[in-house]
Design goal:
182 residues; alpha+beta; Beta-Lactamase; 5-stranded antiparallel beta sheet; 46% helix; elongated
């Protein structure tokens, strides 16, 4: 059982927090966690309707998932686990920290779907940048190179690790000067 002062603190955080006993029953859920449960179940459940129920009773679709494996690992080995996964309960990405104790498991979750989407976009654009057949070079306002793809390497003779952080004029003029000498 969580004392009222601790409960006030857990209600003030913007991320989800749940406490489970050793039989996987909810002993505490903050309002954010309760909102996730409500969305996942499509029901306007009260806290009282959730407390005392087994996590796996509330989320039977989680049995066999990464959540199931990681939560059991934390309890079995009595070690904290941290992971990111797409939730089979809500179809959203979540970063999870699970902390075991003699009483059970404390679970802290943060939605990271937007971050994951941004990472996917960045990965996609990086893939495009590397596979385009034209030289692509990006600079900041002072002409310091911030991106240099493989085609730029072939065209100008500088590897990306050599070009990044250098002034573009220096790189291009050096190449021109070298050609004029030969």
């Amino acid at each position: 059982m969580i004392d009222p002062r601790t409960g006030d603190i857990l209600e003030s955080i913007t991320d989800e927090f749940s406490a489970l006993d050793r039989q996987w029953r909810f002993t505490y859920v903050n309002e954010q966690a309760l909102d996730v449960i409500r969305r996942a179940k499509g029901e306007e459940l009260t806290r009282e309707e959730v407390l005392g129920k087994s996590f796996w009773e509330v989320f039977p679709e989680g049995v066999g998932s990464v959540f199931y494996e990681k939560y059991h690992e934390a309890m079995r080995e009595q070690k904290s686990v941290h992971f990111e996964a797409c939730s089979p309960f809500t179809d959203r990405w979540v970063e999870v920290h699970a902390y075991p104790s003699q009483e059970g498991l404390s679970v802290y979750g943060r939605g990271i779907t937007e971050r994951k989407r941004a990472e996917e976009q960045l990965s996609y654009h990086a893939h495009l940048l590397e596979n385009v057949h034209d030289a692509v070079i990006a600079t900041d306002e002072g002409f310091t190179v911030t991106a240099w793809n493989k085609s730029a390497e072939r065209t100008y003779g500088w590897r990306a690790d050599e070009a990044l952080g250098r002034n573009l004029r220096e790189l291009i003029l050096k190449g021109i000067d070298d050609e004029q000498v030969n």
